[in-house]
Design goal:
Strands 6-7-8-3-9-10 form a 6-stranded mixed sheet, sandwiched between helices. A 4-stranded antiparallel sheet has the order 2-1-4-5, covered by helices on one side. It is of the alpha/beta class and 254 residues long. The protein is 39% helix and 25% strand.
């Protein structure tokens, strides 16, 4: 069943056309990749999906609801989360606190109960802290749990960002170049963890990357963009032997 349906989407910035007539469908429960060279329109596409930019034309339906023109915070409340290419952490707060903020949308108790930490609020907070610790462990972040996030190398900050996004347990999580800045070993470990947690918690992933190797190991279906246009869609195996896709990455001589 389709969770996200993008139809004939175009995004313009003045006279610059970033995305032209792109259509794609993300099914519930799948890991769908969007890949393309730098400048292909990948980030512009997810900025349109999350309401960060308003499309020039086209339709975006999430959970069978048209979301073009809806404010980003309202789109988020529907169960659509994202990470950013350049991480947006609370740099002066600890890694643990950053991950803890991801659980905020699951809290249902009042301000007084939260302040006094009694009853349901106390139980919920204890459970949340346990879950945050489990996420830190899953992403290899336990040793830096008390470190201020802004002091960490970029690759580790990316892991914190992914862990926080998964903590919110959205229906659909859009990941914008989630392994940039990571070493090969860190990227492989992060990919394995993302896949495992998404399956366990029923989270659909739309992963935007320019690193073909990473995405081919993570995604079940891949959409390829080039110069803002849809180039191809298919399985990772199909994309690796698609002549047009290979040429977009390696040039005509390939």
């Amino acid at each position: 069943m389709a969770l996200l349906e993008i139809n004939a989407l175009s995004v313009r910035f003045g006279g610059v056309v970033a995305v032209t007539d792109v259509s794609l469908t993300v099914n519930a429960g799948e890991i769908h990749g969007v890949i393309g060279p730098n400048g292909a329109g990948k980030t512009s596409l997810i900025n349109a999906v999350t309401g960060m930019v308003t499309p020039h034309s086209g339709s975006i339906r999430f959970s069978d609801k048209e979301i073009v023109g809806i404010a980003p915070h309202l789109i988020s409340s529907l169960g659509l989360g994202r990470t950013f290419q350049h991480v947006e952490l609370f740099g002066d707060r600890s890694v643990f606190d950053n991950v803890l903020t991801g659980f905020y949308r699951h809290q249902s108790y009042g301000l007084l109960a939260a302040a006094l930490r009694f009853g349901r609020a106390g139980q919920s907070e204890r459970k949340t802290r346990e879950q945050a610790s489990e996420l830190l462990d899953a992403f290899g972040l336990t040793d830096c749990a008390d470190t201020r996030a802004g002091l960490l190398p970029f690759g580790i900050q990316k892991r914190v960002d992914i862990a926080r996004a998964l903590a919110a347990e959205p229906k659909l999580l859009l990941l914008d170049e989630p392994v940039s800045g990571m070493s090969e070993a860190e990227a492989e470990a992060a990919v394995t963890t993302m896949r495992k947690l998404a399956r366990e918690h029923g989270i659909t992933l739309l992963v935007v990357e320019h690193n073909m190797r990473v995405l081919m190991n993570l995604a079940e279906r891949v959409t390829v963009l080039n110069q803002g246009r849809l180039l191809a869609t298919g399985t990772p195996a199909e994309m690796q032997v698609d002549t047009a896709v290979v040429e977009a990455y390696l040039g005509d001589a390939a």
